[in-house]
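User: Could you go from structure to sequence for me? I need the amino acid at each position, not a summary. Structure tokens:
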């Protein structure tokens, strides 16, 4: 059976999802499909009143359901049922995602959705296995550390992997005993809404997963500034992350996890398997047309093999079959919006004006939607716009180095430290360089996440604070209380 579908025949969830039911509102924003630019849906925007209602609903649901204080295995069971329903409805969720976003229908069911269901199961299994501890104190005392949920977590997600990001936020927060008010990106809300609906069908008490729709300035701001939120969990750009920190500082200090932008380097040493390196670099910048936080967009290569690697990359940087996200034959994603397409094009043009040489790409691609050609720029320096800015598109820069020290100096971005890749056959060098790379994740002789949910993800420097995934994400959704008893 083909996965292709007709986007005009798809019923989209309407309204915010609060307390287990939809709350339609007046449409205040128009959404355009990245695949063909068509205006296809309207979106209500939650103001402070509705955000307040969602937070109060979440609080009341926590209290009445006992979700945070129940036998933890009950949460485990409910989350497993939710993961099962997500998998069972993967085809429909994939359509809701593909219509709005840049994710391809051919990649969603076996990719994003299967991984999200598994991640939810990973966190479900932590609920009854992670606890506090007894600590060494004087013999006539008993000291312990107990852990508790925060209460209501305010979560905000970006548009580039909407289902995955919703899973990253909801899975650990719910497993750890919290309720959530989640604001998805205003561009890609539909699959998240349906996931929330499925949570209720799975037996997660209504009101524990609430979804408020709207933009960052209105809805996001009201959510992060709400004093009833115990913690903020955000994934998005560093600019928005900074604005959220300011808002939190102004409106009442609360803990936060911030997963922010990146400009990740991939270091290729002369002894590396060049074919493997070229495959990994090309594959990861073509994936989702480079709209990936950990996109390894800065290639740093030892000078003696630079020409060979550049040629191998040019040969591999082919867009594949262009088409809409809802066509199973499409291989290359559109750019999310006309605005983002303009931004990519203007950053590449600025790089060329600054002296960059184009080895391939640097052009919009024809199509009814928003497409940009895979691009490789050389002749750039550390201060070139294309090297400093997170372009968030299918654009690679290539710089050369002579020594390990030069490679590390080039790798060290002034702002970002999300991820890095490293290709070498020399194990000692790999370990030495890995230790010095200023990045929250380092991949060696590979690039990109695996299905090992145990590995946390998060940034150094302005790429973020705290971690998603792994045990860290579960613990980041609980706080500790120290208890000392005089016996
Ligand atoms: P964005 O920052 O523009 O928006 C992300 C979300 O934040 C959206 O829901 C938006 O409405 C909301 N928002 C924006 N301003 C806000 C504010 N002041 N207060 C509250 N909410 C606000 O990012 P985007 O364009 O949707 O996504 C792309 C960015 O996300 C890139 O920078 C990418 O690197 C980053 N990202 C990071 C990770 C990670 O794990 N580190 C993962 C995916 C994406």
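Assistant: Here is the amino acid at each position, in order:
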């Amino acid at each position: 059976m083909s996965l292709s579908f007709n986007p005009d025949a798809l019923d989209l969830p309407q309204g915010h999802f609060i307390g287990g039911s939809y709350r339609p509102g007046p449409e205040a924003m128009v959404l355009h499909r990245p695949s063909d630019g068509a205006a296809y849906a309207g979106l209500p925007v939650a103001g402070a009143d509705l955000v307040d209602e969602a937070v109060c609903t979440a609080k009341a649901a926590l209290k009445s359901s006992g979700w945070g204080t129940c036998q933890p295995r009950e949460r485990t069971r409910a989350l497993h049922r939710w993961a099962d329903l997500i998998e069972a409805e993967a085809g429909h969720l994939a359509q809701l995602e593909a219509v709005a976003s840049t994710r391809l229908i051919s990649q969603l069911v076996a990719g994003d959705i299967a991984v999200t269901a598994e991640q939810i199961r990973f966190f479900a299994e932590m609920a009854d296995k992670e606890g506090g501890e007894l600590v060494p104190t004087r013999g006539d005392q008993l000291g312990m550390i107990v852990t508790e949920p925060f209460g209501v977590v305010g979560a905000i997600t970006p548009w580039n992997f909407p289902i995955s990001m919703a899973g990253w936020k909801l899975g650990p927060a719910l497993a750890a005993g919290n309720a959530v008010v989640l604001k998805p990106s205003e561009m890609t809300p539909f699959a998240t809404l349906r996931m929330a609906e499925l949570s209720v069908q799975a037996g997660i008490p209504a009101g524990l997963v609430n979804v408020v729709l709207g933009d960052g300035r209105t809805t996001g701001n009201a959510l992060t500034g709400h004093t009833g939120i115990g913690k903020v969990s955000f994934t998005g750009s560093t600019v928005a992350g900074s604005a959220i920190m300011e808002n939190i500082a102004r409106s009442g200090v609360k803990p936060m996890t911030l997963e922010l932008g990146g400009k990740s380097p991939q270091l290729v040493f002369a002894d590396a398997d060049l074919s493997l390196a070229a495959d990994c670099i090309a594959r990861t910048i073509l994936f989702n047309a480079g709209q990936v936080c950990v996109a390894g967009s800065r290639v740093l290569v030892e000078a003696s093999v630079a020409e060979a690697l550049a040629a191998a990359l040019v040969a591999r940087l082919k867009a594949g079959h262009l088409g809409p996200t809802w066509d199973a034959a499409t291989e290359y994603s559109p750019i999310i919006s006309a605005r983002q397409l303009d931004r990519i094009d203007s950053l590449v043009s600025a790089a060329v004006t600054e002296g960059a040489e184009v080895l391939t790409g640097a052009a919009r691609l024809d199509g009814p939607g928003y497409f940009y050609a895979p691009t490789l720029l050389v002749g750039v320096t550390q201060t070139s716009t294309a090297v400093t800015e997170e372009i968030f598109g299918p654009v690679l820069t290539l710089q050369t180095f002579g020594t390990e020290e030069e490679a590390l100096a080039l790798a060290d971005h002034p702002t970002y430290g999300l991820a890095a890749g490293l290709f070498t056959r020399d194990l000692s060098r790999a370990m030495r360089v890995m230790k010095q790379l200023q990045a929250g994740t380092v991949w060696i002789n590979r690039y990109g996440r695996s299905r090992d949910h145990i590995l946390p993800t998060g940034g150094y420097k302005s790429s973020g604070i705290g971690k998603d995934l792994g045990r860290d994400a579960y613990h980041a959704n609980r706080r500790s209380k120290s208890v000392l008893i005089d016996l």
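One structural detail worth keeping in mind: The CA atoms of residues 6 and 326 lie 7 Å apart.
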